[in-house]
Please model this.
Amino acid sequence: MRSLFCRHSVFFIAFFIFLAASCSKKNELPPQKIPVQAQTFSWYAFTQNSFEKIAKLSDAPVVPAKPWTEAVRISSISCAASADKADGIPEGYAVVNRCGILVFKGDSVELCSDSALFSGKTAGNLVFFSDIPFFSVYRSTFFNDADGKKTQDFTPFLIQFTPDQRIFYPVVTVQNLGFDSRYEITDFIWDGTVWTCSAKASENEKTVFSYCTFQPKEPLYAITPENAGSSLLVAESSAVKFRGAQETLDFSNAPARIKELLGSLPETADFSLSCYTAGGHSPRVFVSAHNKKSSASQLLANALLSENWCGVLFEDGTFFLKGALFSRPVMNGGKPVALKLPKLLAGYVYSGFTVSGSSLYAAWEETSFFKTGRSGFICVDLDAVLYKVEK
Model:
C-alpha cells in the first residue's frame, strides 16, 4: 500500500502534533509521535444486511469479492452542518451500498434500511439540502437482469432520508427528468444550484448515454415524483458539460483551510483529494500531481470541511485534523494534528470519514481493481486521543 509515512503499528494509533507550524517547510520540525492505547478504537464489519463489532480486522466475515457497484460497502459518507435536537450533536451519515444508511451520533451507530429500495440497487452520492440527506440509486444492468425493471411503474433516482423519522422517500424519478424506463441515472454532480446528470440505457447489447440538468423551483424536500413535473426546470445537456461539472482542479485551488491543514506535506507529494463540505453539495476533486508520467503513485484522500473543524483522511490511514470538535476546546492551540489509524491488512484501504461529537468514523474495505471484498468502518474515540478524556 502506498503510504505517506513508512512506520505503522498494529496496536497503537500514532498521534502526531505539529510542533512548529509557523516554520517554513524547509525548517519545520518533524511531528512528535505519541502512542495511544488500542482501546481508543473499535472495528466494525458489514454482514450481508447489517454490521457487527469485531475484535480485529481479520475477524471480518469472509465474503466473495464483487464489483464495487454490487458489494456491501460504504459508498459515500459525510455529516450534517448542524443539529436541531436538544443535545445539538450534528449527525454523520454513510450510504451503505445494497444495505441502507448508517446514522452516527456521538459514539452510537444505527443502520436504517429499506429492502425494497436498496435491494439490487447501487446507492451513493450523498449530499445535503437544509441539512437533510439525499442520495441516488440505480440498477446496473451490466451485472443484473434488465428484466427486473419491467415490473416498475417508475424508476427511482434521488432519495431523501428523513433523520427524525428514519424513513426514505423518493424525490425525483428517472421519468421526471424526461427519460423512459430503459434508462438509469448512474451519476450526478450538484454544485449547490444545478444538478448535472448522466443517464445510461442498455438495449440490443449496446449502451446509450444521455445527459440532462435540472434546477428545483422549490425546496428539494418539498418535491415528490407526483409534483416534480411542475417543480423542476429540466434541460438537455451533453457529455462535454457533464465532464466539465466533474472537472478536477489543481490542489492550488483547494479551500485555504485544507491547504493549511496539509501544509506540512512534502511539496512533491502526489495525491487526489475529494473535498466534501458538511451539510453540502457534491465534492470537488483536487489533485497534487508531480509525477507527470503516471497517476499510480497518487494517494487517494477525502477531506471534510465543517464550520469548526476540518479533516483529511488518506487511504493509508494518515488523518489530519484542525479546529474544535463539538463541545470541546480548540485542539493543539489551533495548529493541525495528525493521527495514524491502525494499519490495515495488505489489499485494504481507508476511504471516506465523518465526525460526530468527538467520534471519528472511517470506512475501510478490501479492494482489488474494480472489486470489493470485506468492508466496514472503524470508530476512534477522539476524546481519549486528543483531549485525554476517559469515558
